[in-house]
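Exercise (ungraded).
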Amino acid sequence: MTSKPKLAVWKFASCSGCQLSLLDCEDELLAIVGAVDIANFPEASREIVDGPYDVSLVEGSVTTQHEIDRLKDVREQSKYIITIGACATAGGIQALRNFKDMKDFVATVYAHPEYISTLANSTPISDHIKVDYELQGCPINKNQLLEVLGALLHGRRANIPNYSVCVECKQRGTSCVAVSKGIACLGPVTKAGCGAICPTYNRGCYGCFGPMETPNPEGLSNWLLDQKLIEKEDMMRMFRTFTAGAPAFKKESERNE
Amino acid sequence: MNDKTRTIKVDYLARVEGEGAMYLKIEGNTLKDVQLKIFEPPRFFEGFLQGRDHTEVPDITARICGICPVAHQLSSVYAVENALGIKLEGPLHDLRRLIYCGEWITSHALHIYMLHAPDFLGYESALHMAADYPNEVQRGLQLKKVGGQLQTFLGGRNIHPVSVRVGGFHKIPSKEELLTLKEPLERAREASLKTVRWVSTFDFPDFEQDYTFVAVHHPDEYAINEGDIASSDGTDIEAEKFEQYIEEHQAKHTNAIQCVIRATQKPYQVGPLARYSLNFDKLPPHIQALAKEVGLGETCSNPFKSIIVRSIETLYACEEALRIIDNYVKPEKPFVKYELKAATGCAVSEAPRGLLFHRYTMNEKGDIEKANIIPPTAQNQKMIEDDLWKFVQKYLDLPDEKLQWQAEHAIRNYDPCISCSVHFLKLTVDRI
């Protein structure tokens, strides 16, 4: 019998990148195994220890009825649920289906659409069950994942900033790509966490960490359009990518249709 | 027990990327049914690429797979570039190959140490294995880390990197910056050499198969990022002809589209065995000599030995990365300029799991009108079922639990990447 907290990792519709972030903690992985009992993590182990679990990490969005049923089971077995990544927290890139007729998509990909069962919309986990913490990012930042897990294990509040990518540009000493280079950038409305990678690579932030707390997307797109840094159609597309289903970005993409 | 039906079901295959299942049905001493089911829900990438700007393609296609985002970025960006008549040469070509080497190193190290080696040594996972093999597991993790560092250095992060764009890169490093990668890569080269020697001491079942191999082939290099398509049936075609050479089928039991060779209606294999067997002569002589020293021939048709081939390829990728860094001269511009036109283009590259095909049709504004993506695991799915038919039949005397593990091992030989294959795995054994 072990007294270590039991961790489970669950996958729904996703690219597996966020759960891979756990295996990407190459320097910390064996220490994590020392601190928690990785009881259910099929991508890494064929051993499945039955629940209940102290912490469940949930990756992916909900796209089938079967997944809704599975999720309820996950909730019943888990004390804390942390959703990880843009799919789990906002529906992911597969939420692009929410803006179109699903039948067209299935027919584009499959010769026999009748074999495929799928829901009309891709939705975040929190639409279906109570979630205790949401960690944004496409993909999540592994250091933020370690911070959230560490905080939970020590019973303290996770130190995850709610400010925008702009702050990270300042911290890194990256000059503003919108102001200095005339590149359209979603940094002012996007939640920090990546470390402002895109502006550092000479391109505008494309919003893969989703909306920051209390963003002003309308103000940003009006300014970008005024400055002629972007066309309206591209503004719509820019808000409609990996976190297209997040309410603040969804509204703004629709406003620019 | 000879008259009984046995069913072996694995509802959720472990140590593979994504959601798959296996189903085996055995009546007496005969294997009656084999299904590799991919129940990962479809995500319809080809559907939502329609109407997107061509510049968004590499960012979107990266999200097909968290394990091989660079493969998808590069197959797709090469396809768009082929449509527009852009051909990258010199250092921009080399940097594309360099970031791909990073993905090969990190993905192969993940599979060799975390997903596959535990099957040979009888552990549920690498984390379980770490108690008895601490040095090996550490070595695997550190090797994996260097691959990720290379991706992060060039792409900003290892999962869904951001630097690749149509025409080149958003940002490229200076020679001095690139040289900082030499020391970790030299360590990785040593680690991968130890990996080759370590995995070649494993016990391998006698399971040589008569495969048809298909892989990217390049006249001058061990094909990774670009080339034509070669097959062990003698075919040598350009990427444009690939959709005529193979045929995609949709089976009821799976969300992945399965592939066969059109002329023969037979399954074929992509991945490390195919690459190695078709491109052995493109490996440097000392790596060829090492491969022979550890027991490989010039071709390899035992899928269990794919772990040795992956380790050889990891070593190659480390050395290739070092070669590129040594030869690098920073180009004047990170990308080349191009003109838009209505056009169709396709490209193939070697994802860690095998040949990856992308095709795009664009209009004159550069908007994508049509996309087609054929990932490696969709192509291998039928071959994996074929292997299970032959392999499981040999081990029917084993108790269910051991038989199930053996069958899972046979599946993991392919390092199936299910997230990719859905447009696309589940294992069950029925015994009668």
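Further reading is listed at the end of the chapter. For now, observe: Chain B touches chain A through 65 residues (CB under 8 Å). Chain B is about 45% helix and 20% strand.
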